[in-house]
Amino acid sequence: MKEKDFYGEIGNWDFSMINYTVEKITDWDMYKEISSYTDENSLCLDLGTGGGEKAIKYYPKVGMLVATDFSEEMIKTAKSNLKGKKRIKFAQMDNLKINFPDKIFNLVSARHTVINAKEIYRVLEPGGVVVIEGVDKGDCIELMDTFKKGDVERGKKAISQIDYEDLVNAGFKIIKMVEIFENEYYKTKEDLMALLLKTPIINDFSDTHYKNEIEEELLDKYVKENTTDKGILLKRKLYGIVAQKG
Predict the structure, then answer these.
(1) Is 171 left (phi over 0), alpha (psi -120 to 50) or beta?
(2) More confident residue, 45 or 15
(3) Domain 2-244 has CATH 3.40.50.150
(4) Weakest-pLDDT range from 43-57, 59-73, 80-94, 148-162
(5) Residue 127 backbone class (left: φ over 0; alpha: ψ -120 to 50; beta: rest)
(6) What is the pLDDT of residues 2-28, one digit of tens each?
(7) What is the per-residue pLDDT for 195?
(8) Is there a contact between 102 and 122 (Cβ–Cβ < 8 Å)?
(9) Are 38 and 107 in contact (CB under 8 A)?
């Protein structure tokens, strides 16, 4: 409920107001992967779509894309962002309980969200593919260390490994996983603060007294130690998975 309330309050997944650039170190792109497994007749499901910003802008042209999120406010935003596009439908739904029949989708995508591998396997047709991108263990590790979160994160099992094992247990036979490294450069401290207030990077939902508040003194320390000629550096570690149903 804390997570649902948080995203309901945020109401969108739009980062366009934050001034930053991305330097890709790993040659892997989720939407290129999706494009390689789909065509103009494909029926696709996008889980945890937020306000639909990425799906609308980057998803390849397919027969129909059904994009879902468990936040009612996010779906309201997504529908308002749609602006007449006919091949995308948005619906409120819990990722862990997919409300669609068996073997209906050609491809399922999930970006930075929780998954239920067995449910994804169920709704994919034989030969269907799931494409996943997520935040992995070691993401923003210097920032986490500054805020005394690094040791906690290092003690956790990697999300990539959890997803991989869940996909194996669900029945997926062909699974490819890649580590993704990126550098993000924020123009100002205020831009970095805007990111941290919009995303649960410093504080996560396992905290009983969850509040997404940022200690400015520690942020100042991080900014001082990580300012470069390109901006304030934030090192990201993600993972990508492509798995095919047998």
Answers:
(1) left
(2) 45
(3) yes
(4) 148-162
(5) left
(6) 455 555 565 566 778 899 999 999 999
(7) 92
(8) yes
(9) yes
Burial class for 34, CB neighbours closer than 10 Å (0-12, 13-18, 19+): buried
**Both structure tokens of 115:** 């998954």
Q: Which residues contact 229 (CB under 8 A, 6 or more apart)?
A: none
Question: In the chain, what percentage of residues exceed pLDDT 90?
Answer: 76
Q: In this structure, what token pair is assigned to residue 163?
A: 């997803």
Give the list of residues 6+ apart from residue 13 with CB closer than 8 angstroms, or none: 50, 51, 53, 54, 74
**Cβ(80)–Cβ(63) below 8 Å:** no
What residues form DSSP beta bridges with 184?
Answer: 22, 234
The CA angle 146-13-184, to the nearest 5 degrees, is 40
Q: How far apart are CA 46 and CA 2, in angstroms?
A: 23
Residues 26-44 pLDDT 10s: 999 999 999 999 999 999 9
Amino acid identity of residue 231, one-letter, is: G
- List the chain domain ranges: 2-244
